[in-house]
Write a structure and sequence with these properties.
Distance between the termini: 40 Å
Helix content: under 10%
Largest sheet: 7 strands, mixed
Structural class: mainly beta
Number of helices: 0
Radius of gyration: 13 Å
Strand content: over 45%
Number of strands: 11
């Protein structure tokens, strides 16, 4: 069983930065994929970024390319999402997720484990 715990959310002004962390515990394997998703009020959960557990390749949704960076620290078993140049439309609850079968997938149904989420609010 894999447990994911996000942290690092908060309130920031537009143009600011935040770094989200996802602490991973339990039996995670090198073939797992990791993803970040977000859900704004009244909207469906949407894909943000994904990588393999090795962190060698990362895919991003178009709206965050060049602003967000996803990385993995295998030794610390932590997944990060560095968010720069934040915009009000980035306001959402951000979730970390783990995929047992593949990596880089953008659909929520592909992921087997989810964290509880961390709130990010960007003021204009």
């Amino acid at each position: 069983q894999v447990q994911l715990v996000e942290s690092g959310g908060g309130l920031v002004q537009a143009g600011g930065s935040l770094r989200l962390s996802c602490a991973v515990s339990g039996g995670i394997f090198s073939n797992y994929g990791m993803g970040w998703f977000r859900q704004a009020p009244g909207k469906e959960r949407e894909f943000v970024a994904a990588t393999s557990w090795g962190g060698d390749n990362v895919v991003y949704t178009d709206s965050v390319k060049g602003r967000f960076t996803m990385s993995v620290d295998n030794a610390e078993k932590t997944v990060y999402l560095q968010m720069n140049s934040l915009r009000p439309e980035d306001t959402a609850v951000y979730y970390c997720a783990a995929d047992r079968r593949s990596w880089g997938r953008s659909r929520t149904r592909a992921y087997d484990y989810w964290g509880q989420g961390t709130q990010v609010t960007v003021s204009s």
